UniProtKB/TrEMBL annotation:
GO terms for biological process: protein localization to plasma membrane. InterPro entries: ARM-type_fold (IPR016024), EFR3-like_ARM (IPR049152), EFR3_Homologs (IPR051851). One of its GO terms (cellular component) is plasma membrane. This is EFR3 homolog Ba (S. cerevisiae). Pfam families: EFR3_ARM (PF21052). Belongs to the EFR3 family. Coiled coil: none annotated.
């Protein structure tokens, strides 16, 4: 071998003849099954290849690749592995001269086939697969940077390389009986690690124009093998992709995922949820502060999927009502909706403040402010669900929102429609709006420190406070009265619960801590006193709500008095609170918002049944709970007014009169606990308030309370008018007008008319 190497180096022009001779000998030995000589010939070729670097090496390489091909085509696994090892050695050599006529198509196909080997012996099968992975790695190294070679990024090559790598990467994701992936035995020999290194090396060499061709086979592989539903393997694949490619190309991967999500809009909810989960993880990894030039398109795609999921949920509930499959479908759609909402938050977390403000405004524009829907009843429920889902998405966007200029971050075009939702009857929607406002105003993470209770010393809260800036003063000067009015109106809603009052207290506390100057503090005190008067005078409110508003006012005045540090003010507030603690604890938070009553504090059905049964009573019917049967007459008699609870002007000036001060100091507990006004007087008062509200309220706030019923009537009337107009003045027939247009148009018979879809029953 030393003499042969010396001869080849001394006479480089003889290399091609040496290679041709060794190739001929190897082919003959392979055919005659003389494998010892085959190994000797390949070792000679390997050593000559490593030693000789001259301009005539290309002809020798052709003979070498021919011999490697012969070995890879053999049936013996040892020969395939031998040929792969020789090819890997060749791939690590940097050639001085380029080759214009060399092709690696065969090697890509053969190595990909070896990656999918199904040999009976598991040890040999693993060796063949690892050889195929190393062969693909060698092909990538040899061709990816050589412009004269066939483009390895072409789909015909990527469709073979990437699925082969993913197939071996998947070997450690064998699900157990519970469905969760566990590590397989194949991972002990390093197959998965080798595959991951090869895949990372391939993706790390991808440039801008090659990202799509590299990612598309991954998407197709996950589709073909139903790997989205498991989520873990799909997430792992795209984590490898996101960490391997160049950071400036990350948004291209996300755009492909979004496009794939659109393409699978009609797939099952578990598949769509898996894609959304991958998008969420990819957004967290993508840390460049931007998700590409089409930020709003990303959120538009996600919100569109949210709407589709709501439609699918309602459709699945109607078609599969009463069946287990329908319930399962609804549950899967809700899980998908939660995943989409989390993904919206993940994307928003990567954006700077100015882009997040644009996204907030964009989502607000997508929320249906009024229930303008045609047709069936479930459409109105769908509109409500869409409102809730989009508000939850908006809440995710506002998490961690930090801005120094509230005036520009929260323009009127965003704040006005957001506040209008506080006038809706739906308690869940109002609560979401309050949480959004809290998240926007809280800039020092104080919201979790506020609890609706009376503290003798608020220093234990450790509130973080800064001096109110000029921008904050301008913001409050422009929007404060609107905020106060909507807080006041929110307290008048009859279906408010403890969470609503807690959120209202947190919102008012954050306004006082984050945005308050002396003028704002005075207005907040006026608002608290107005809420107290509301609890005293608004007799239509339930007793719980009136006591809760009293408790809210007391807790907030206690907070403001300690923040202002005015001794006489604090003394007066503490005196009233102490009096309430002794005489009327139900006017304080601790007395109103008690925990759930259970256990020994409730009457036991079983014990009552046992005692009655022992006394001769038939206690069998006690097992069945009593449920009243509501008739249609009862429903009509309990129907609410169109604008049942709305008052749009907060006239707090009149609260400063001496008479009101006396009422405030006396607390007027008796009014809170008794309903002594007769029904007729209440009805007259309600009608007077309705007339007054229609006279003073802006149109959009009246429309927010109108509900679905009147809008249905409006569109039914509109559809009926359209039908009548078509009947009275029917359109020309499909054959057109007669003659040359001088005569009147011929009418279409009624049974041939094309009515609008809205009018067809």
């Amino acid at each position: 071998m030393e003499k042969l190497t010396f001869y080849a180096l001394s006479a480089p022009e003889k290399l091609d003849r040496i290679g041709a001779y060794l190739s001929e000998r190897l082919s003959r030995d392979v055919a005659r099954h003389r494998y010892g000589y085959v190994c000797i010939a390949m070792e000679a070729l390997d050593q000559l290849l490593m030693a000789c670097h001259c301009q005539s090496i290309n002809l020798f390489v052709e003979s070498f690749l021919t011999m490697v091909r012969k070995l890879l085509e053999a049936d013996k696994p040892n020969l395939q592995i031998l040929g792969t090892n020789s090819f890997v050695k060749f791939a690590n050599i940097e050639e001085d001269t380029a080759s214009y006529h060399r092709s690696y198509d065969f090697f890509i196909s053969r190595f990909s086939e070896m990656c999918h080997s199904s040999y009976e012996d598991p040890d040999i099968r693993t060796k063949i697969r690892m050889a195929g992975i190393r062969g693909l790695q060698g092909v990538v190294r040899k061709t990816v940077n050589d412009e004269l070679q066939a483009n390895i990024w072409d789909p015909q090559h990527m469709d073979k390389i990437v699925p082969s790598l993913l197939f071996n990467l998947q070997q450690d994701q064998i699900p157990d009986s519970s469905g969760s992936p566990v590590c397989a035995e194949g991972d002990k020999d390093g197959t998965v690690d080798l595959t991951e290194r090869c895949l990372r090396e391939l993706l790390g060499r991808a440039v801008y124009g090659n990202i799509k061709n590299a990612v598309k086979p991954v998407l197709m592989h996950l589709d073909n093998h139903s790997l989205w539903e498991g989520k873990s393997f799909a997430v792992r694949c795209f984590k490898i992709i996101m960490y391997s490619i160049q950071s400036q190309h990350s948004h291209l991967v996300i755009q492909q995922l979004l496009g794939h999500l659109d393409a699978n809009s009609k797939s099952s909810a578990t598949v769509r949820a898996g894609i959304v989960e991958v998008i969420s993880e990819a957004a967290v990894i993508e840390a460049s502060g931007s998700i590409g030039p089409t930020v709003l398109e990303v959120f538009n795609t996600l919100l569109k999927q949210l709407r589709l999921s709501v439609d699918y949920e309602l459709g699945g509930g109607c078609s599969g009502s009463g069946g287990g499959g329908g319930l399962l479908r609804v549950q899967e759609e809700r899980q998908l909706q939660e995943s989409v909402i989390r993904t919206v938050g993940s994307f928003a977390g990567t954006l700077p403040t100015y882009q997040r403000s644009e996204v907030m405004l964009f989502i607000m524009g997508k929320i249906p402010r009024f229930l303008i829907w045609f047709g069936l009843c479930f459409r109105f429920e769908g509109s409500r669900m869409i409102q809730i889902m989009l508000l939850k998405s908006l809440l995710q966007v506002t998490v961690g929102f930090q801005t120094t200029n509230m005036l520009t971050a929260l323009p009127s075009s965003f704040l006005d429609p957001l506040l209008s939702f506080t006038l809706m009857e739906d308690a869940e929607i109002r609560l979401l709006v309050l949480e959004i406002l809290i998240s926007l105003i809280d800039r020092h993470e104080n919201q979790l420190k506020f609890s609706l209770r009376v503290l003798t010393d608020i220093s234990v809260l450790k509130l973080k406070m800064d001096k109110c800036s000029r921008q904050d003063n301008l913001f409050m000067k422009k929007h404060s009265q609107r905020l106060y009015r909507h807080v006041y109106l929110a307290c008048r809603e009859e279906n408010s619960e403890q969470q609503h009052f807690q959120s209202l207290f947190t919102l008012l506390g954050l306004i006082c801590v984050e945005l308050a100057n002396e003028e704002v503090v005075v207005d907040l005190i006026r608002l608290a006193l107005a809420l107290q008067d509301l609890a005293v005078t608004e007799e239509a409110l339930p007793v719980f709500n009136r006591c809760a508003v009293h408790a809210l006012s007391a807790a907030y005045l206690n907070l403001i008095s300690q923040l202002t540090t005015v001794p006489t003010f604090c003394q007066h507030v503490h005196e009233v609170i102490e009096l309430r603690q002794k005489e009327f604890p139900f006017l304080l938070p601790e007395g109103v918002f008690v925990e759930k009553v259970e256990g020994e504090f409730l009457f036991s059905q079983s014990k009552i049944a046992e005692t009655l049964g022992g006394s001769g009573y038939n206690s069998d019917r006690l097992v069945t709970p009593y449920i009243p049967q509501i008739t249609e007459e009862d429903r009509l008699s309990k129907r609410k007014s169109i604008v049942d609870t709305i008052s749009l002007q907060l006239d707090v000036e009149s609260r400063l009169s001496p008479e009101k001060e006396q009422v405030r100091n006396c607390v007027c507990v008796c009014v809170c606990l008794t309903d002594g006004v007769c029904v007729e007087e209440q009805e007259r008062e309600r009608r007077r308030l309705v007339v007054e509200r229609f006279q003073t309220a802006p149109f959009e706030e009246i429309a927010a309370h109108c509900g679905a019923g009147c809008i249905i009537c409006f569109f039914l009337s509109l559809s009926l008018s359209l039908s009548l107009s078509l009947t009275l003045r029917p359109p020309p027939s499909p054959s057109g007008s007669i003659g040359n247009g001088s005569g009147p148009s011929r009418s279409v018979p009624v049974y041939e008319m094309k009515f609008p879809d809205l009018c067809v029953y």
